[in-house]
Design a protein that fits this description.
heterodimer; A: mainly alpha; two-stranded antiparallel ribbon; globular; B: 524 residues; two-stranded antiparallel sheet
């Protein structure tokens, strides 16, 4: 039987459609949630979460299936080379889907307590994830920018989702203003790149920039061929400007110092599951974008920007760690700590060899699960009548809920980088790559910042373990929360105790 | 049984961990079960380590009881265990003191009993791991992991300033160990590797490769390791965490801290730092000079500060700075006597200072104070206690026929062979040691009972006897017949001196009259 529509669909799914199938599935599920949400009563709203979870599962399965053609061909390109599916994308897509699933699991009870159980919340989570996946799979400036904006717009709404709360509204507004500002800067950088190379395909742009760079170098070697039309300084000006704008836009998105000011306020104001999503997934997605751009577009001129990135990395480490020391709000503290984690990942980019790339992938993987775990504890603490975000609210957590306290300890050790946890392995690769590429000073900076980091992470531990509990009630963990916590703890410990499979995965994604 | 024999080190290593996991499953209301369980596993940990001694084959060149399986193949980290005579002694010290420390906490701990025993057992595994690991990656994991239970032991069961002391301990040690991590990574990266092969973290391989490094690189590596070990020992300017941590920790914590934890630093010096010393020349002699001067300052300064203390526990803590100064002096004298004496003195310090902390613990449980001025004339109500305390004090200050004398004498002899001045300053430390320990004993035990509360203090009970008598027995054994101990460490020490200071044996040969040479050198 031949049905024209169906055969057209199958053809499509074997061609261009295959490279965007995971995203398409997520979008369909998101739209489905918006449709059925009207028919659900208040008691049935949790079904939205179930549907969203199913969406991530379907999408994850498709991503998993994609590894076979990718393994055979190296990569799949579609839509006139503007979308790519390669190990890089598969790895990051897996991380985004895992993070989204964790957020969905942790959101159900939280929204119940806040009495904001609208279905749009879950739809927006899925749309944000779609945006992130396009950020990792985009091979064209337009696709990348669209992915970034899809993610950002969803986040602006999610941050202000607690409409009745002032903090949430304020955070949302700050996020919108600074987000739009940084997107503008990034778009300006993109426009310069287009002007330089007459193309939006990043491979072509990279080639053009490389040729230009080679031409400039040859000019510098033969001073007699320098004419007013071919002045090496002028020729270099535009690529440098383009790089600076793109870099600044991206540094805003990953919250590197000095473009980090929005992060603590947004983290503090947003609903905690959204804070977790912003800090975990949006940061990783922005890193995916940054890595793709820096490695493909600016790969040829690495020596020129290496020290700029190193400076940003050390600044992030310094400011992130020092500012975290004095915080009393756990969400703010984790915001500053995540700024310091950005510093470590950027140091990997400075080293830039195979070990460093493995390290970046490993670090981001570890970062997602350990940070998600830390926020998950805060979400569990959120009970009726208790916000549970201040250090004082953690007091005596050990007596109130030993399991949460133990998990919190594991996540804190991992965030600080104490073995045998995932966080240590991530740092291990970064440090090793710095030594391999002869950056001993940066390496010493990087290791010594573990010490203040441990101090502030253990301020959390002290409150949870060694302070007497006050009047605070025992936190009750829902099943969904327990599942999310177990997954986060399992990965955090497994990637530290038996890192072999995770190392292979990181090498598959980036370290080749 | 075969499995046990082939994996004896793993069994020794993981018995305490297994105990901790079992106790984790017992509900926390069953305090007595936890007490008994903790003690059983403490004792079991010691019993399973005894075969190491019985099955020991002296004179082996390689590490004994090896276990070597891949762990993280993609980076070349392996699960590689093995011990030589030096690590054997330290492992035995760990299991022995661990058992005693656990026994000593029976009546001292009343809250969070479950967690207390779990942490003590975890700590045991961490410490044994440091001494048996022969893979740098594995070593580093144990080195760091062990900080966490110790942090909680101080922070949860310590006295008034416990939180401050606990985090100070953690941060100081961590600062040193992260620098060591860099040194390990540099060693890993700079060691030559066959093309196509993965690099390795294997300790013997890397240290052998390090012999061919250039001198400046060796110096950098040496200092990288140095900070971690110097903070752990602790050597003079890095010692400030020690008095706080030892004073605030619960009795068992202090026993373990002084008895075993500090030895991780000296062990590191012997195992990892010495092979990284550059070849003869200005760089080497500068390093040696700096380390020896710091050791001598530590010996004298520690002893002088002891004279000023009002708190018994703090006094004993500072005495560790002084005693460990002897150990580092012996190590960096680079003579067979110095090294052998240093290893033995590490064991002695574990026994004597461990016992001294137990003694303070006994008094603290009775009076809940550690101030010297609160006591006086205790010999009258507590005669057995007085006898044991006297023996331990004498052992700690280096009285002949007791263990401290053998260690200190051998170290000073070793130092004397290199420089008379070093030995002279060291001897000053011995004299001061006698002064502060005997003065402390006099103020606490002799004279009339000064305070009415002290008049009817109960003497040692059976359990306290059981914790102290084995230590007294060991003090006498080492003091009277130290030969078995020396014979264990003779071979590894000789190997280290040959490798690190090959000139020593040649110079010894030159000093002796020609006829005596062959016999004397053989005897070494």
């Amino acid at each position: 039987m031949h049905i024209p529509f169906l055969s057209a669909l199958t053809d499509y799914l074997q061609g261009d459609g295959a490279v965007i199938l995971p995203e398409v599935e997520l979008t369909l599920f998101g739209l489905g949630i918006l449709l059925i949400d009207f028919t659900l009563g208040v008691k049935e709203r949790y079904l939205n979460a179930g549907l969203a979870l199913a969406g991530t599962a379907f999408s994850a399965y498709t991503v998993w299936k994609l590894r076979v053609p990718v393994g055979a061909n190296g990569s799949l390109l579609g839509f006139h080379d503007s979308v790519i599916v390669d190990p890089f994308f598969l790895f990051f897509a897996g991380l985004f889907l895992a993070a989204t699933a964790l957020v969905i699991l942790l959101s159900v009870k939280f929204l119940e307590i806040e009495q904001e159980q609208e279905g749009e919340y879950y739809a927006l989570l899925l749309f944000a994830c779609v945006g992130m996946m396009f950020m990792a799979s985009g091979f064209d400036l337009i696709v990348m920018f669209l992915g970034l904006e899809t993610m950002a717009l969803s986040f602006y709404v999610l941050t202000g989702f607690l409409r009745r709360e002032k903090r949430s509204n304020e955070a949302s507004l700050k996020y919108v203003l600074l987000g739009a500002f940084s997107s503008g800067i990034l778009a300006y950088g993109f426009s310069l790149l287009y002007g330089l190379s007459d193309s939006t395909n990043i491979d072509t742009i990279g080639e053009m920039l490389g040729q230009r760079n080679a031409f400039i170098t040859s000019l510098l070697h033969n001073p007699q061929s320098v004419t007013p039309a071919f002045d090496p300084f002028l020729l270099q000006l535009l690529p440098v400007l383009a790089f600076v704008f793109v870099a600044v836009g991206l540094f805003f998105k990953i919250a590197a110092v000095p473009f980090h000011q929005w992060a603590p306020d947004v983290y503090e104001g947003a609903p905690t599951p959204v804070t977790m999503f912003v800090s975990v997934a949006s940061k990783t997605a922005s890193f995916a974008l940054l890595l793709r751009l820096f490695l493909v577009v600016f790969g040829a001129t690495r020596v020129n920007w290496m020290y700029l990135v190193a400076g940003i990395a050390v600044a992030s480490l310094t400011w992130g760690n020092l500012a975290a020391l004095t915080q009393t709000n756990v969400k703010r503290l984790l915001a500053y700590s995540s700024i310091s984690h950005v510093g470590y990942v950027l140091l990997g980019l400075v080293a830039g060899n195979k070990t460093a790339m493995t390290g970046i992938a490993y670090y981001l993987l570890a970062y997602i699960f350990m940070t998600a775990g830390a926020f998950a504890i805060l979400i569990v603490l959120r009970q009726k009548g208790l916000i549970g975000e201040e250090l004082e609210d953690l007091n005596g957590l050990y007596q109130r809920s030993p399991a949460s306290a133990l998990l919190l300890l594991i996540f804190m050790l991992s965030l600080a980088g104490i073995p045998p946890t995932a966080g240590f392995m991530g740092k291990y690769f970064i440090f090793l790559s710095l030594i391999e590429t002869k950056h001993p000073v940066l390496a010493v900076f990087a290791v010594l910042y573990i010490v203040p980091a441990l101090y502030y992470y253990f301020r959390i531990v002290v409150h949870a373990w060694l302070k007497a509990p006050g009047e605070a009630p025992r936190p009750v963990m829902s099943n969904a929360q327990a599942v999310a916590l177990s997954v986060a703890a399992f990965v955090t410990l497994a990637a530290g105790l038996y890192p072999e499979p995770f190392t292979r995965l990181a090498q598959y994604a980036l370290g080749r | 049984m075969d499995f046990f024999a082939n994996h004896i080190l793993s069994v020794v290593l993981f018995t305490p961990l297994a105990g901790a996991i079992l106790l984790l499953l017992v509900p926390r209301e069953m305090e007595l079960t936890h007490r008994i369980g903790g003690n059983i596993f403490g004792m079991l940990g010691f019993l399973v380590s005894l075969p190491l001694v019985f099955w020991w084959k002296p004179g082996l060149e390689q590490f004994s009881f090896p276990e070597n399986v891949p762990w993280i193949p993609s980076i070349g980290a392996r699960y590689h265990l093995g011990i030589d005579g030096i690590s054997l002694l330290l492992v035995m010290l760990t299991t022995f003191l661990g058992m005693i420390a656990i026994l000593s906490s029976w009546s001292a701990i009343h809250q969070r009993t479950k967690e207390y025993y779990i942490l003590l057992l975890l700590l045991q595994t961490g410490m044994i791991g440091v001494f048996v690991a022969l893979d740098f990656f594995l070593f580093y994991v144990f080195w760091e992991v062990m900080l966490v239970p110790m942090y909680f032991l101080i922070g949860a069961w310590g006295s008034d300033r416990r939180l401050y002391a606990a985090i100070k301990f953690f941060l100081y040690t961590l600062a040193g160990s992260v620098v060591m991590l860099l040194a390990i990574l540099a060693l890993y990266f700079y060691a030559p590797v066959a093309p196509g092969a993965t690099r390795t973290f294997d300790v013997p391989t890397l240290l052998a490769a390090a012999q061919h490094f250039s001198d400046p690189l060796k110096v950098w590596l040496f200092w990288g390791f140095f900070f971690a070990f110097a903070i752990k020992v602790p050597m003079f300017p890095f010692h400030t965490w020690l008095p706080d941590a030892h004073t605030e920790a619960p009795t068992a914590g202090s026993v373990i801290l002084a008895g075993v934890l500090l030895k991780m630093g000296t062990y590191g010096f012997i195992r990892f730092s010495l092979p990284l010393l550059p070849a003869d020349g200005a760089m080497r002699s500068n390093i040696i000079k700096i380390v020896i001067v710091l050791s001598l300052i530590g010996i004298v300064y520690g002893a002088l500060v002891c004279l000023m203390q009002k708190d018994m526990k703090r006094l004993i803590a500072y005495s560790s700075v002084s005693h460990l100064g002897f150990c580092t002096l012996g190590i960096f004298a680079l003579t067979p006597n110095g090294l052998a004496g240093s290893v033995l003195q590490q064991i002695n310090h574990g026994i004597s200072t461990g016992a001294l902390f137990l003694i303070v613990g006994v008094l603290y449980e009775r009076r809940h104070t550690r101030l010297i001025s609160e006591f006086g004339g205790l010999a009258t109500p507590m005669p057995n206690f007085a006898a044991i305390y006297l023996i331990i004090s004498l052992s700690s200050l280096g009285m002949p026929l007791l263990n401290g004398f053998i260690g200190e004498f051998t170290i000073l002899q070793g130092a004397f062979q290199v420089s008379k001045a070093w030995a002279a300053w060291g001897t000053l430390g011995v004299i001061l040691g006698a002064a502060y320990l005997l003065w402390l004993y006099q103020r606490v035990m002799f004279g009339p009972v000064t305070l009415p509360v002290n008049e009817h203090l109960p003497d040692l009970n059976l359990r306290e006897m059981a914790t102290l008598v084995p230590l007294v027995f060991m003090a006498f054994w080492i003091g009277i017949y130290p030969k078995p101990f020396f014979s264990l460490i003779e071979k590894p020490v000789q190997k280290i001196v040959e490798q690190v200071n090959p000139n020593f044996y040649q110079m010894e040969r030159a000093k002796l009259p020609p006829a005596v040479v062959p016999a004397a050198v053989e005897a070494k």
